[in-house]
User: Which sequence fits this backbone?
């Protein structure tokens, strides 16, 4: 056995040297990711935002770190431990996975988050403004798993409901409600798990920067993977009717029945990210008798012709907020009908109470949405 | 390329034949596990309780299904998809993982559960009595994530709190509280995620078989992995003092402050499984001024000499319940000080209100604890 092992070690040494050359630029100040499982050292992140993964896979031929749509080869040491790192990532949360001899699997070191249609690994690149979602010793609200039967779909479902700290303390008080939607391939867990929307709210409330309100996070999944007709509008007409009906006929009545809400349009808002923003646009434009305040993050904007077609929205809307990451705004990839900043500016000229926010140096990703929510939460339900 | 592929296919065919012979007994009625991610077909379970896993790993040399402390070799087809199954498993929930060329990873097909000190895969073998934890169209309570600051440990922590459906409906009503602990290597998520304690309660309440009460599930982790002194008692004296202090000084006051509780010993119970049962024994024996009702599942029992040493417990206890799986009872592996059934019978003779339950054909596993909880919940806080 001695010979083959020596030969193999020789190969490894050569590999390590090559790696050392190609990684001469990597800053060696890696620290465990904040999204790791308790006690797990890897993945790590350095000050450049590089993600370094590690896994014990002694018999594997090829192991890769798959993050940001790029697969990075990892390198095996003499103990069968593979290590490798990515190019620098933007600040904030990123989905990723490991690829072991062709199998795409979650990294056993990370916590798991729902995105891309499955539970998978997540990693946290420290952000200069991470204080907004930091876990602090302030009064904390709770996030509750609420199971309910939906008549419109005939099945048992669940949503998550954030109630602020004061909700349990003041059993006579009623609260406004924000309906907050995730993006495509995500689900009802996203805003609290990777969005940290509860911590953002707890911190804002502790600083007196927001009004207390209830947040309802349900699953608005719509399958984008179906066949697309050449020349037909996309997404097709009526694409969010199913979720709209469930929201209006099941979710809102159930919430108004089980929680102490202020059950009128003046105290009801809807917001969402990406697909959730597209749903927010369709639903709030046609139902200003239900929602008076609107937030759209990275999923298009309302245009002047939308207002013309929906005069009730124009008359009843109290707040219209649009947020984007600077990188996605530059690429224009998620504009979805005209330049969002221009569209919002035009609505302001037409008399709406509008806000346009750009998250610096982020793309179509959670740091954009955390920051957008942080701004939106300070504007919504203000007297 | 044609030649090597043909040779490889020949090898595969031989392998498939061997597998076919060894698996002649497998009943081909596999269905997706109830603990799968939405839309995922594998893992599957058949009527014998065999678990069949499948994963695409085209470049892998060896893939195994690791369940019940046994690794089962899986077999690759011509598309690089590996499939394999286990021996029959007991009814109920089981932790498992995949092993890909030596790397132990979660199965991308399953939901993830915390056990064995990490988030990993779980699979559900249909049980003859699964109706007790089935998701039904009944009024549902909520499970809330409660963040709090613990003075005794100086850190921010979380627990999960089940409140019955009626809790939100009757804001003037106060409720008794059960403190319910997980086992070693598990955490505060276990009782609701894999125990389905919320569904068991919802179903019992809908049938009028239990009193409504609040359930608090916190993390009582104690590290069993430290050095053991030859001849010294194990676990060592004082092993659960840290958790006991946090429970008494932080958790209970926080719950009594944030929830509408009946804050006296008569309306406070403690129960736990395995390590949690051991903690329940230590804590309730020494604090009958705090807890009057006690459940211990698969983690020992209170003996006559315990009563003699704790006369207050003997005088104040209103309910003492012990549950075990029949298989672990046979092996005696989790008896922890005398025969549990005899110990409980002796306490009954001495005047305590005792119950002893044996879960048929289960071991030291979640089906035992779901069933034990189902019985305990019908006895606790009864007038």
Assistant:
């Amino acid at each position: 056995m001695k010979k083959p092992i020596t030969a193999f070690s020789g190969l490894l040494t050569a590999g390590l040297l090559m790696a050392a050359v190609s990684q001469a630029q990597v800053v060696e100040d890696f620290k465990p990711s904040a999204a790791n499982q308790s006690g797990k050292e890897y993945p790590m992140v350095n000050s450049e935002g590089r993600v370094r993964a590690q896994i014990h896979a002694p018999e594997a031929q090829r192991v890769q770190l798959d993050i940001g749509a790029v697969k990075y080869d990892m390198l095996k040491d003499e103990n069968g431990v593979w290590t490798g790192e990515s190019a620098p990532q933007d600040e904030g949360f990123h989905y990723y996975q490991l690829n072991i001899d062709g199998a795409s699997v979650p990294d056993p070191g990370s916590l798991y988050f729902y995105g891309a249609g499955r539970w998978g690994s997540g990693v946290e690149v420290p952000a200069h403004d991470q204080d907004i979602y930091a876990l602090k010793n302030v009064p904390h609200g709770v996030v509750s798993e609420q199971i309910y039967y939906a008549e419109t779909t005939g099945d048992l479902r669940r949503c998550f409901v954030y109630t602020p700290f004061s909700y349990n303390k003041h059993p006579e008080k009623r609260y406004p409600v924000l309906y907050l939607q995730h993006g495509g391939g995500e689900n009802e867990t996203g805003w609290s798990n990777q969005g940290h929307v509860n911590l953002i709210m707890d911190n804002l409330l502790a600083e007196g920067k927001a009004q207390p309100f209830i947040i309802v996070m349900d699953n608005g999944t719509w399958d984008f993977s179906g066949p697309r007709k050449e020349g037909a509008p996309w997404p097709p007409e009526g694409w969010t009717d199913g979720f709209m009906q469930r929201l209006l006929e099941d979710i809102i009545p159930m919430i108004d029945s089980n929680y102490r809400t202020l059950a009128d349009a003046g105290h009801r808002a809807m917001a969402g990210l990406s697909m959730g923003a597209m749903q927010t646009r369709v639903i709030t434009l046609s139902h200003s008798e239900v929602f008076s305040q609107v937030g759209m993050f990275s999923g298009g904007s309302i245009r002047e012709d939308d207002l013309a077609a929906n005069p009730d929205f124009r008359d009843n809307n109290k707040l219209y907020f649009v947020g984007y990451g600077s990188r996605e705004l530059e690429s224009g990839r998620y504009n979805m009908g005209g330049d969002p900043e221009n569209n919002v500016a035009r609505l302001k000229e037409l008399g709406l109470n509008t806000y346009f926010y750009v998250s610096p140096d982020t793309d179509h990703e959670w740091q954009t949405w955390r920051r957008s929510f942080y701004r939106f939460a300070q504007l919504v339900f203000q007297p």
About this structure: Residues 72 and 119 of chain A are 21 Å apart (CA to CA).
